[in-house]
Amino acid sequence: MKSAAKVVVVPDHTLSFAERMERLSKKRSELIRPVQERPRDYVLLSIRDVAAKLGTDPATVLRTVRGLGFESYREFKAYLHQLSIASATSLDGMQAVSKPNSSLLSQGARALDQDLQNLQALRNTLDMNRIVAIARRVYAARKILVLGGDLAASLAEYLEYNLTLLGFTVVAGITPGKTINAVRSFDRHDLVFAISFRRGLRQTVEGMKQARANGAYCVGITDSFVSPICRFSDECLLASIESHLGTSYAAPMSLFNVMLTICAHYREARTMKTLKKLDQEQRHGYRWYPV
C-alpha cells in the first residue's frame, strides 16, 4: 500500500506585510508594527521573546500571526527571515561582520566565503528545467525587455548585451523614462526580465506590473520571495546578493551565465551561425587594441 503523499502548505506571498496588517484590528496592527519596521530584531527570537519585547503574551502574538495569514509561528518566522533579507541595508551588512581586532585579511576572506555561500545556495536550489522553459520563451518572444535600475542596471545591460549577441531583439530599461516608454509597446507576444533586489526599485516594479498588465510574460530576478518583484511576476528566480557591504552580484551573474548558456545551446545550429558572423569582427575589428 502506497503511503499518502506529504502535503506542503505554501503561504500566500502575493501580499505585502502592510497588506497583511490591514486584516488586523487597529490594536493588533499597532502591536505588530515594530516587527514590520525592524524584522532583523525579531527574526531569531522565540515566540516568548517576541511577546516580551512587544510587551504582550505569547497567545496574543500567535493570534496576531494567524490574523496575518500564517498557520503557525514557525511559518511566520520563515517569512520574517525573508523580510529581513528584503529590508537589509548596507549598514546592516557592515555591522553584522564588524568585529574588534579583526584583520583586513580575515575580512577579505569572509567576503569571498560569503560569495561562495551565495553560489552554493544557487547551485542547490536552481531548477534547470525552469531555465530551459525560460529559454523556450526567449526564442518564442517577438522582442525582449530587460528592466533594472540603480546598481542592477549593470546586470540589465549585461543580459541585454549577451542576448543581443545571440541574435535576439532586446531593449534595456535602466532609467525611469526609458522604462515607462519601453513597456508601452510590450504585450502578449513579448518577454520581460525584471531585475531588482531587496525591497525592489520602484521603476522596475512598476514597469514590470505595466508590462504584465499589457499581457507580456514577466520573469523576475530577485533575492527573496517577499520582494515585490516575486509577488508581481509570472515566475521568479532567486539569487542571493548577501554581502558584507550590502550587495554582491556573484550569484545573479552566475544565474545569467547558466541562462545564456542554455539559450545558446537550445538551438545550437542557429547560435553557431550567428556567432560565425561575429567571428571576424571579434578577431580583427577596429575596436580591439592589437596585442
Automatic annotation (TrEMBL):
Top-level division of the source organism's lineage: Bacteria
GO biological process: carbohydrate derivative metabolic process
PROSITE patterns: HTH_RPIR, SIS
Keyword terms, alphabetized: DNA-binding, Transcription, Transcription regulation
A Pfam family it matches: SIS
InterPro entries: Homeodomain-like_sf, HTH_RpiR, RpiR-like, RpiR-like_SIS, SIS_dom, SIS_dom_sf, WH-like_DNA-bd_sf
Regions crossing the membrane: none
Span of domain SIS: 134-277
Domain HTH rpiR-type intervals: 11-87
Protein name (database record): Transcriptional regulator, RpiR family
Record organism: Koribacter versatilis (strain Ellin345)
Upper classification of the organism: Bacteria, Pseudomonadati, Acidobacteriota, Terriglobia, Terriglobales
